[in-house]
Structure formats: C-alpha cells, structure tokens
From TrEMBL:
Record protein name field: GYF domain-containing protein
InterPro entries, sorted: GYF_2, TIC56
Pfam families to which the protein is assigned, alphabetical: GYF_2
GO biological process terms, semicolon-separated: protein import into chloroplast stroma
Entry's Gene Ontology cellular component terms: chloroplast inner membrane
Source species of the chain: Symbiochloris irregularis
Region (Disordered): 1-33
C-alpha cells in the first residue's frame, strides 16, 4: 500500500465538515413575499391604527386617554409606556399589551422616537442616576463601603 493510497486525516478534511455542521444548525431567515392583497391588508390596518383613538393604563393601572399616535409616541419617549403597557382602542375586545396590537409598536417607535429615547436615557437620566449613586455613597457609613454595596446602590 502506497502512502498516496492511505487517507489523510488533517485539518483540511475536518474543517469543511465542521463548517457544514455549523451552517446547517443556523436557521436561515425566510424573506416575506406578500401578495398584493396582503400588502393592501397591512396598509389598511396601519391606516386604521393611525386614525384610532387610544387609551392606555399607566404604571398604577389607571386608564389614561383618549390619545392619538403622537401622544403615544411622546409617552414612549418619556418612558411612560413600553411594549408591555396595556392599551385599548376601538375594535379591540379587551385591554392588550402594545406588542400584541398589530403594527402599533412600529408606528409608535419611529426613528425620531428611538433617537429621542436614546438621547434622554444617555444624556439626562444616566448622569442623574450617577449623581444619586455618588450622593448615597457619601451618606453611607464607612463600614458599608464594600464593592457589593457600591454596586447595589
């Protein structure tokens, strides 16, 4: 038996098998192909959602409203509502989380709302929170100055 007849077990033979296994384990996203009727239906739902009058429940479960999409966008940017906030509008049988109302989250979280939320969180809320942490650390007794307590407060 020649050396050329013997199978070689090197990195070149194991790498493709490993790569094939990795690529087959990842689910590939499917492109959505909507028919003309499906697109019309989505546009119709967006239009109804935009024109609807909405009510939402705040953190204390107090109903607020009536309000329209610009008010909901402002509440989202202020942190008053999020995806789990219960909303009700005409055509809904009961209060539902915002994330369960088709097309409502994308209509609220526009690019402007996302930028405003980011700016408010990083330029206003985070510095205020850091000041509170520093103030509380100064008021704590020296015996409690441990890394665990410093990270908690």
């Amino acid at each position: 038996m020649d050396e050329s007849d013997q199978p070689t077990a090197g990195p070149s033979t194991s790498a493709p098998a490993e790569t094939a296994w990795l690529s087959s384990s990842k689910p590939r996203p499917k492109k959505a192909h909507l028919s003309f009727n499906d697109k019309e239906q989505v546009d119709y739902i967006r239009e109804l959602t935009a024109k609807n009058v909405w009510y939402y429940r705040d953190r204390l479960s107090v109903p607020r409203g009536p309000c329209n999409l610009p008010v909901l966008r402002e509440c989202w940017a202020s942190g008053v509502i999020d995806e789990n906030t219960l909303v009700w509008g005409q055509g809904l049988g009961d209060w539902l989380p915002v994330k369960n109302v088709k097309t409502l989250v994308p209509q609220i979280r526009t690019l402007e709302v996302q930028v405003t939320t980011f700016i408010k969180k990083h330029l206003a809320l985070r510095p205020a929170l850091n000041r509170m942490h520093k103030h509380r650390a100064e008021q704590r007794p020296a015996a409690l100055h441990t890394p665990q307590v410093s990270e908690m407060y």
